[in-house]
Amino acid sequence: MSNMKVKVGSKGMVIALIIGAILLGGGGGYLLWRVNQPKTVAPTESEASVPKMCRRCKKNCNIPKTSDGQCNPMSYDGKENVGCTNTTCCKWDDTEEYPCGVSKYHITYNAGDGGTVTNAGKNEVNPGGSIGSEAKPNTGYIFKQWSDGKTTAARTDSNVQADATYTATFEAIKIEKFTLKYTAGTGGSIVGNATQTVEKGKDGTSVEAKADTNYKFDKWSDNKVTTATRTDTNVQANITVKAEFKISCGDNICDPWEDVNNCPTDCEGCGDGKCIPPENAITCPRDCPVTCGDGICSEGEDKTNCPADCGSAATTVPDTGIFDNSKHTVIFGFVVLVIGLAWTWISTLPKKALFAISSTSSKIREDSERRRVENRRERLEKRIK
User: Fold this and answer.
1) How far apart are CA 36 and CA 66, in angstroms?
2) What does the domain layout of the chain look like in residue ranges?
3) Are 128 and 161 within 8 A, CB to CB?
4) What's the rounded Cα separation, in Å, for the pair 124 and 16?
5) Which residues neighbour 76 within 8 Å (Cβ) at sequence distance 6 or greater?
């Protein structure tokens, strides 16, 4: 019996030892596993305010994240793939950190009235990435600024760390305009648009200063245009100008619109086709040629339309310039005569000079021959003696 008890006791001890070993091994394994798990201690107040940072891949992808969003370097499979997603991580030495749960930021560019922007609308940007836009005004507008105060039309937003919206504002170009105002004095009126609004640098439309009966246009008050019709071009300032007129009848000039009926004081005798003093080219242009009264009976003048210059048909001479006046003719003839005589005398000078040279040479030869003969005669006479 005693042996039986010992045997039973030994078996129980063995079983107890086995159960104890299992419990100790399991507990140790659990403790080892627990020690290797990430801390789950609640963050302090300061830690809670800082966003948890996760790893973001650049390359060497296909490393699954752990359940809490962290990368597990031990699961790296050695492949170098591109196009990582927010569900995969990369090698520890080829990653960058970013706030957990954020895979893309959105940068939105809008354009106000009067223009457009490039990359308009919402744009996805990687954390820390960059993107840009340029504001382009429409015709008649200029770029003013972006909603964040930037005044350059082109902008680049770098190291993006949050969503943002930027709106470009534009403003209409102020076009300077000027007023052209035309008025008429006594004796006339303005034909055309008397009051005009013109943009700077543009041209106005034509206006005419039209004279009333018995008046004629005299001048514009600014003295810049001498004709009754004017058009102001390249306008750079406001213009206010007055057309001035003067009485036509009574000025001793029979203008084309006057005759002996509506203005006898100026046109008595004028209009009969005869230029009879005191009519002349100024007081009666319809009867008197422009050159009548200059003392020269020019072409187109005769004793009828210009008796002052052409008293009779016999005195008419061609309108040839210097020959229209006898004094001029005499002077011209005298000058021609003097020039002719001078030329005749000058032309004989070479001949006279040649003759003088020839005569001198002949005389020298004759004297030399005479002396030679005389010397020979003297030598002969000395031999005879």
Assistant:
1) 13
2) 48-99, 105-172, 177-247
3) yes
4) 66
5) 60, 63, 90, 91
230 neighbors 181 (Cβ within 8 angstroms): no
pLDDT per residue over 297-328, tens digit each? Answer: 877 778 777 777 787 544 444 445 554 456 66
Tell me the pairing of strands 88-89 and 229-230.
unpaired
pLDDT tens digit string along 177-236?
A: 999 999 999 999 999 999 999 999 999 999 999 999 888 899 999 998 999 999 999 999
Query: pLDDT higher for 198 or 34?
Result: 198
Q: Which two tokens stand for residue 175?
A: 């076009």
Rounded Cα distance between 304 and 232, Å, is 46
- Amino acid found at 268: E
Residue 326 burial (CB < 10 Å; 0-12/13-18/19+)? exposed
